[in-house]
């Protein structure tokens, strides 16, 4: 196979952004996507796409775990079991990756969360961080990333309400977030309309003294053309967002917002059904020579390249590094090694409110994935953690993405799961309920980590990735605190009934129940090669012609959704490749 | 455009889009009147196996299994004063048709061993059995249990006894020999709800009875003018193939 200047492994958001940036820099780029080609046509054609059974229930757009899954155990002395059915998380598959089926909540980051350890030590003292919690700083600041957040929003066509632009308040009383960091320009589109559920949340949150704002949404509030010339139409709140291809060209995706421009680019080639087995290294393991993949016919093919970009889903990046021998694998007993370290997730709690049929019609079939109203009063470090004794924060929101009846029937507490009572409650409450989440940050710990499983294999005979993961005391205390604060909003709505879903004391990670697909860490960025796998430009410390963009670089989980930070970090990394690395290929940061 | 106009435009669009749908798919759509389904359900008696809503012949299930399936789904989503239930929705047909998909063979799941059937529930499904096998073994075990307890098969029991048996399976208090009763019950209930609420093209939710019950508009999927309204959505559902309730 002809040598490429750069080979990109995985064509989701990070892969598409890298492909665009590197072809702009004049490189010949080959992108390898293990899943099939997929796009608005035909996978997202109306009305075929409006099919809950095929898409969400039978998992049409998600990773085919019959071929490769992960194994999971709660503790370092347990035997891990394979995740046989998709449950807690839903990684993507095919062109666009999870960027096809995501919802579109498009945040930046709270600046404090980029320097998590330093900030907590400065404000609360070193002893405040519990034993075994391994949170770190990202090694990059919000100010450094701001231009890349700004550009990513313009590429995505994000709808939202700014608080300040270059220090000037523009969002007070208009739905801006008083806790949001300063911006250099406004959102490309105004915020979307708010559903009845979001309006109820906004009113109730104001009554209890919190500060509601419009969720930043990568669903368009109006027609839009992005900097690459890609065109989007206004979102019509069809309610088939998370888990579906957007038939309206309204939800940002790599396919819609970047691929049309790449298709014009002769230096770019996208190969689908190309399952990468490993990155090939030279004999001293300091330089990658390319990758080996299996094509649709089952043939092993070597693709040589000068530069290798690992931009698969978070845990696939980590697995490829472990399978290839890039960087030292992490050992939880000694705390040494870096690949697999600081695997972190999200810490969710949910409250559902049910109304009498004459009180409110929330019509939850109406929805847009990124749309809603949130409060940040208890996110990040926006409140004094001192008296509460836990690390981390949580935004709360109503995010009515659209619920459909097979998975979306949710009845008040005490209702049976079947029979006439179930049926009557479904009829009485489906259009008279709303759901709110405390979308908690999740911290990293010494013994929550990733390595290769000793027993289970993928369809190609390679070891599966093993997750060693469980909730810790800090996580449970945080989520219980958050749900009490959020309950005040729910109670202010005067509902007929409430259902509170929160992890109790001693809860273990449940792999069968959906939480979020916001998995983090395992190939984390940082300032020290002893404690991070990649440097602040997402470049491998050990193999400098390998870059690893994605949430695998997060040293811990954010309160916000990760995609906005993934996109900004990828643009930041691409800029460093274009402006520094290509002129002088080698380490961009000296260890 | 005014809010009053838009639904009509929507209907126009749906009507026009019908011309794009191949004739063969329309021929397969059920056009039975909802009234006839309700009439047949009104006569439903739990002592007798419910009559199928159509003359569908099962491909996977045996006659005995088919009888069980009808009787069980008729209790899970009963025909009652709130309207049609699983039988009118065609849930047995839906489940049988699903048995011909890759889902039923377990090929959407990671099915390599070793298997640990005694894993804690937090680790999700850990059995070697595919959905097809769960039905084959589960229905036989359920009928066998009913026969041991009551001297009759499940379908021959009265409604109250059937409900009590289903609750036993649901709770996991009953021990089936070859699989946990709860695994069987969970799959049956999940598939029943799928068949009640899926798009009618999958063989269930006939005449969109499931969607009408809860006021879900199906494939309308355009609510720009309804986002901010705190009122009942007034238009009946449409299906992917353009059928209207």
TrEMBL record, chain A:
<dbReference type="InterPro" id="IPR036188">
    <property type="entry name" value="FAD/NAD-bd_sf"/>
</dbReference>
<keyword id="KW-0274">FAD</keyword>
<feature type="domain" description="Glucose-methanol-choline oxidoreductase C-terminal">
    <location>
        <begin position="446"/>
        <end position="569"/>
    </location>
</feature>
<dbReference type="Pfam" id="PF05199">
    <property type="entry name" value="GMC_oxred_C"/>
</dbReference>
<feature type="domain" description="Glucose-methanol-choline oxidoreductase N-terminal">
    <location>
        <begin position="229"/>
        <end position="344"/>
    </location>
</feature>
<dbReference type="InterPro" id="IPR007867">
    <property type="entry name" value="GMC_OxRtase_C"/>
</dbReference>
<dbReference type="GO" id="GO:0050660">
    <property type="term" value="F:flavin adenine dinucleotide binding"/>
</dbReference>
<comment type="similarity">
    <text>Belongs to the GMC oxidoreductase family.</text>
</comment>
<keyword id="KW-0560">Oxidoreductase</keyword>
<protein>
    <submittedName>
        <fullName>Gluconate 2-dehydrogenase alpha chain</fullName>
        <ecNumber>1.1.99.3</ecNumber>
    </submittedName>
</protein>
<keyword id="KW-0285">Flavoprotein</keyword>
<dbReference type="Pfam" id="PF00732">
    <property type="entry name" value="GMC_oxred_N"/>
</dbReference>
<dbReference type="GO" id="GO:0033717">
    <property type="term" value="F:gluconate 2-dehydrogenase (acceptor) activity"/>
</dbReference>
<dbReference type="InterPro" id="IPR000172">
    <property type="entry name" value="GMC_OxRdtase_N"/>
</dbReference>
TrEMBL record, chain B:
<keyword id="KW-0560">Oxidoreductase</keyword>
<dbReference type="GO" id="GO:0033717">
    <property type="term" value="F:gluconate 2-dehydrogenase (acceptor) activity"/>
</dbReference>
<protein>
    <submittedName>
        <fullName>Gluconate 2-dehydrogenase gamma chain</fullName>
        <ecNumber>1.1.99.3</ecNumber>
    </submittedName>
</protein>
<dbReference type="Pfam" id="PF13618">
    <property type="entry name" value="Gluconate_2-dh3"/>
</dbReference>
<dbReference type="InterPro" id="IPR027056">
    <property type="entry name" value="Gluconate_2DH_su3"/>
</dbReference>
<dbReference type="InterPro" id="IPR006311">
    <property type="entry name" value="TAT_signal"/>
</dbReference>
């Amino acid at each position: 196979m002809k040598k490429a200047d750069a080979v990109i492994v995985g064509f989701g958001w990070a892969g598409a952004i890298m492909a665009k940036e590197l072809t702009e820099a004049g490189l010949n780029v080959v992108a390898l996507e293990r899943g099939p080609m997929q796009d608005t046509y035909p996978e997202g054609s109306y009305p075929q796409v409006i099919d809950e059974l095929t898409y969400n229930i039978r998992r049409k757009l998600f990773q085919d775990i019959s071929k490769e899954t992960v194994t999971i155990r709660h503790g370092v002395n347990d035997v891990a079991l394979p995740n046989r059915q998709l449950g807690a998380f839903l990684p993507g598959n095919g062109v666009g990756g999870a960027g096809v089926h995501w919802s579109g909540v498009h945040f930046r980051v709270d600046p404090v969360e980029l320097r998590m350890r330093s900030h907590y030590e400065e404000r609360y003292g070193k002893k405040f961080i519990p034993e075994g919690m391994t949170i770190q700083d990202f090694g990059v600041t919000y100010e450094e990333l701001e231009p890349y957040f700004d550009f990513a929003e313009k590429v995505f066509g994000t709808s939202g309400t700014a608080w300040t632009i270059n220090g000037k308040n523009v969002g007070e009383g208009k739905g801006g977030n008083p806790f949001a960091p300063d911006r250099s320009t406004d959102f490309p589109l105004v915020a979307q309309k708010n559903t009845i559920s979001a309006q109820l949340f906004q009113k109730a949150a104001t009554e209890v003294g919190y500060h509601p704002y419009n969720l930043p949404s990568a669903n368009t509030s109006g027609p839009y053309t992005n900097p690459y010339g890609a065109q989007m139409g206004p979102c019509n709140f069809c309610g088939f967002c998370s888990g579906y291809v957007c038939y309206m060209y309204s939800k940002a995706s790599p396919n819609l917002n970047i691929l049309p421009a790449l298709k014009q680019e002769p230096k770019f080639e996208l190969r689908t059904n190309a399952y990468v087995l490993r990155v090939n290294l030279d004999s001293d393991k300091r330089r990658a020579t390319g990758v080996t993949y299996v094509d649709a016919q089952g043939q092993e093919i070597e693709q040589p390249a000068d530069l290798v970009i690992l931009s698969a889903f978070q845990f696939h990046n980590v697995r490829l590094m472990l399978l290839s021998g890039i960087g030292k694998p992490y050992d939880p007993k000694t705390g040494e090694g870096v690949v697999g370290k600081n695997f972190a997730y999200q810490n969710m709690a949910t409250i559902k409110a049910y109304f009498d049929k004459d009180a409110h019609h929330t019509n939850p079939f109406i929805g847009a994935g990124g749309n809603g109203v949130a409060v940040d009063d208890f996110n990040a470090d926006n409140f004094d953690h001192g008296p509460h004794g836990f690390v981390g924060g949580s935004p709360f929101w109503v995010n009515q993405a659209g619920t459909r009846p097979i998975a979306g029937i949710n009845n008040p507490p005490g209702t049976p799961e079947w029979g006439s009572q179930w049926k009557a409650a479904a009829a009485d409450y489906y259009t008279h309920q709303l759901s709110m989440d405390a979308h908690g940050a999740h911290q990293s710990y010494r013994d929550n980590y990733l390595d290769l499983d000793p027993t289970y294999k993928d369809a190609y005979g390679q070891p599966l990735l093993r997750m060693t993961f469980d909730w810790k005391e800090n996580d449970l205390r945080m989520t219980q605190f958050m749900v009490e604060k959020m309950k005040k909003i729910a109670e202010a709505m005067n509902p007929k009934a409430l259902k509170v879903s929160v992890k109790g004391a001693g809860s273990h990670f449940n792999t069968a129940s959906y939480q979020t697909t916001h998995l983090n860490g395992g190939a984390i960025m940082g300032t020290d090669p002893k404690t991070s796998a990649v440097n602040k430009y997402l470049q491998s410390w050990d193999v400098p012609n390998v870059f690893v963009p994605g949430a695998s670089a997060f040293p811990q989980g954010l309160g916000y959704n990760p995609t906005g930070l993934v996109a900004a970090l990828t643009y930041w990394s691409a800029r460093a490749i274009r402006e520094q690395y290509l002129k002088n290929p080698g380490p961009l940061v000296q260890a | 455009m005014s809010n009053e106009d838009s639904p009509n435009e929507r209907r126009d669009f749906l009507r026009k889009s019908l011309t794009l749908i191949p004739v063969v798919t329309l021929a397969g759509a059920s056009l039975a009147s909802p009234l006839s389904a309700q009439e047949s359900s009104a006569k439903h008696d739990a002592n007798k196996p419910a009559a199928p809503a159509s003359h569908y012949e099962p491909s996977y299930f045996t006659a005995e299994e088919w009888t069980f399936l009808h009787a069980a789904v008729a209790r899970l989503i009963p025909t009652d004063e709130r309207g049609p239930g699983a039988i009118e929705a065609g849930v047995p047909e839906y489940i049988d048709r699903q048995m011909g998909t890759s889902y039923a063979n377990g090929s959407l799941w990671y099915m390599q061993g070793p298997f640990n059937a005694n894993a804690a529930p937090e680790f999700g499904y850990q059995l070697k059995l595919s959905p097809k096998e769960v039905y084959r073994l589960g229905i036989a075990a359920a009928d066998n249990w009913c026969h041991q307890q009551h001297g009759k098969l499940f379908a021959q029991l009265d409604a109250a006894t059937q409900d009590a048996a289903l609750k036993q399976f649901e709770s996991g208090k009953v021990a089936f020999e070859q699989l946990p009763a709860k695994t069987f019950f969970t799959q049956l209930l999940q598939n029943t709800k799928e068949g009640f609420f899926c798009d009618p093209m999958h063989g269930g939710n006939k005449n969109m009875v499931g969607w009408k019950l809860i006021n879900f508009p199906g494939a309308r999927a355009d609510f720009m003018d309804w986002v901010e309204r705190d009122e009942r959505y007034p238009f009946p559902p449409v299906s992917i193939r353009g059928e209207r309730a």
